Every structure is written in structure tokens, then in C-alpha cells.
Model the fold of this input.
Amino acid sequence: MKLERYKVLMIILAVLVFAGTVFYVICVKNSGIVLEIRDTETGRVYGSWALEEPGEFSIEYIHSVNMSPVRETFVYEGKKIRLKSVRFHSFGAGMQSYTDEGQALTRDGDAFVITGFNVSFNKLNYISGTVFDHLVFDHLLIINDEIISLRDLAGINPDGKSAHITIQYRDNFVLRRR
Done:
């Protein structure tokens, strides 16, 4: 009798441990900070990516005036997006040519790098896939060692339609309860 009761308790304990593990994997482990890219007009989600520590991501593009690469690196702080650095290869229209207090301008090979920005954003807006003078411009999202073309996500954009990037906290347990 005691042996049967012990077996039943062990089975119940095993089921509870299994259920807890499944809950953790589905609801807790997959919760967290995600970067989302949405159409600014329709709200359609083009994609979302988990942000791994330290929560950095970059946007790289060819500057439309001086036709050289620019990489803006961001980091998340709460639900804000903070500009961490800008890497570029040529000064000119639309490029910062001075430093504000707390900023530093350094060289990295053939590139200039400005760091020390004290500016945060709720969202970032980019117009990607714009056709100008027979060239189709693109922005690349670099996140967690993956490179994603915003043009491939949102398409070629003759109308100047933009996509915005936001940081969200995704709580899968709450999402699944709704």
C-alpha cells in the first residue's frame, strides 16, 4: 500500500517537473526583448528578432550624397534605442563633421568613428528600397551576427514609404493567455 502511494507520488512529481520544464521553455525562455520592423502606415510586421546581450544592432547603408558606407550602431536601454556610434568613410552633406561635448572622433583604418552620443529614440524610421537615378538603395540590419536586407523585407519603394524599428518586451505567457 505504501509502495503504491509512493509510486503515485513519484508519477505526479515527474509530471509536474515535466510540465514546469515545458512551461519554462515555451513561456519564459522565449520571452524577452525583441527588435521589430513594421510598415509605418499599415503596422504590418516585416520581422522581429530577439536581442541578445549586450543588445546591440546596426543599420548600414550607402549615403545617398557622398555614396560611401555608413554604419549606425544602437543599443537598447529599456524600451529606448540609444545611438552608440556612427562609422563612415567620407565627410560631406548630411554627415557630422564635428563632435559635441562627450563625443569622440577616432579613426579605424580608413573609417571615421564618432562615439559618446547622448541621444535615445522610441523608434527609428528608415526609407529603404528607394529608387534614385537608376540605383536602388538598401539598408542592412545587422543583429546577432545576421545581416537582413530591409529592401528584401519591405520591397522596392518608389513612393518613399518608410519602415520603423522599435524595441518591444515580449512576454509569451501573457501573449498566449489572450
Observations:
- The helical segments are 2-28, 150-154, 172-177.
